[in-house]
Amino acid sequence: MIKGYQSELMDIYEKIREQEKEALETRRKEISKSCPKIMDIENTIAKLSLKLATTAMKNVPNATKELENIKNEIKNLRATKYELLVENGYYPEYLNIHYRCKHCKDTGYIVTEKCRCYNQKLVQIYYKNSEIEEATKFNNFNTFNIEYYSSSRVGDERYSPRRNMTGILDKITHEYIPNFNRTDDNILFYGNSGTGKTFLTHCIAKELLDAGYLVVYKTSDELIRNLKEIRFENNQNLEDLLVNCDLLIIDDLGAEQVTEFSVTELFTLLNKKILKKKKMIISTNLNLSDLTKTYAERITSRLFGNFTLFKVYGDDIRVKKNLSKNR
Ligand SMILES: [Zn+2]
């Protein structure tokens, strides 16, 4: 569970409940004016509900029969109330409290389990004005242009860059994303710079964020800075976020300054996440042999053993984009 945002989230739920209470009060006042008879029924129902509760608590003879009678009375009055509301041009639930989330009644919890709306709100708080939110406005599957990938084969690759990317997109959009909740697959995108790996991770982030998953996006540089903060300033909330988010995306692995510290901490993080079956996507401009040279064997063995590897290749898309702009 992600700590640190709990109180902020609980405030949000409380505010929602207050707003809905006020909105209901306004509707009640309106009905009092336009159709006082309905409010009379409302008040009678309230009194009967109270009576129902007290009768249930008291040990009176024939309680069952009496309870049954009160229940029926309430039921009939409710039916009359709904009829009257509709006759007067309102919808039947007009005088009921409205929940924005019916599952948890705007509390965030169903008994002790977190409601699905909880994570969505967490994502909203976490991504308020964040860079990834901005980036995914432009970089998403709707704006992904496969035309940037050549349909001619290059070098000794088996498939053309376009066919290769089509295959990757197919796997991601038809298998990985729809089954996100059911898999613990990690993904490693590797290949030359400018071949759309970052763009691809943004697309995936966007889809999963929209589906309410908590996706944390870090460049490898940022991640190492975060790991320092965790180690030296004991920032537990940050550690919790990195370890327990639904998906951690590490972009441009290998671009950071590789030191003994960074390698050790990175290994610890990868290991923790793999053990906890928390998913990761990593992108790197390094090829597999450079990865092996740059990082200790324990890291590369984690990467090669626990990640699905996708090689991304083709011309430099940034160059192509600029050329098409200047045409
Ligand atoms: Zn809910």
Q: Explain this structure to me?
A:
- By secondary structure, the protein is α/β, with parallel strands linked by helices.
- It folds into two domains: 105 residues; 198 residues, P-loop containing nucleotide triphosphate hydrolases (Rossmann fold), CATH 3.40.50.300.
- 59% of the residues lie in helices and 10% in strands.
- The strands form two sheets. The chain has a five-stranded parallel β-sheet, with helices on both faces. The chain has a two-stranded antiparallel sheet with strand order 1-2.
- Strand 5, helix 10 and strand 6 form a beta-alpha-beta unit.
- Helix 1 crosses helix 2, helix 2 packs antiparallel against helix 3 and helix 5 packs across helix 7.
- The longest helix is centred in the first third of the chain and has 29 residues.
- It is elongated.
- It starts with 5 loop residues before the first helix and ends with a helix.
- The protein binds zinc ion (ZN).
- Zinc ion binds next to loops.
